[in-house]
Specification:
three-stranded antiparallel β-sheet, Gtp Cyclohydrolase I Feedback Regulatory Protein, Chain: K, single chain, 5 strands, 2 helices, two-stranded antiparallel ribbon, cytoplasm, GTP cyclohydrolase binding, GTP_CycHdrlase_I_reg, alpha+beta
């Protein structure tokens, strides 16, 4: 794998939300994600116990690349694309 500037931020902790109820079940399985519904929500989300850096490394090995990143409150959001 190539060098990623995201590796400079090891203080981020899991669990990490990796998808919603419409996400590819095969990809969620590869990531080791489990589906859960938070009390009060009427939708499901996929989570892994890995840190965001670990998830991004796994996705990079599958051909995904970070396109953009932003912060929303205390949440970090990465947008990825696979060629």
């Amino acid at each position: 794998m190539g060098h990623s500037p995201l590796r400079a931020f090891p203080q981020e902790a899991g669990p990490t939300m990796v998808g919603d109820e419409h996400s590819d079940p095969h990809l969620m399985s590869i990531l080791g994600a489990t589906k859960r519904t938070t009390l009060g929500n009427n939708f499901c989300e996929y989570y892994v116990n890995d840190t965001p850096r670990m998830v991004l490394d796994k996705l990079e090995s599958l051909g995904y690349r970070v396109v953009s990143m932003t912060g929303v409150g205390q949440t970090l959001v990465w947008c990825l694309h696979r060629e």
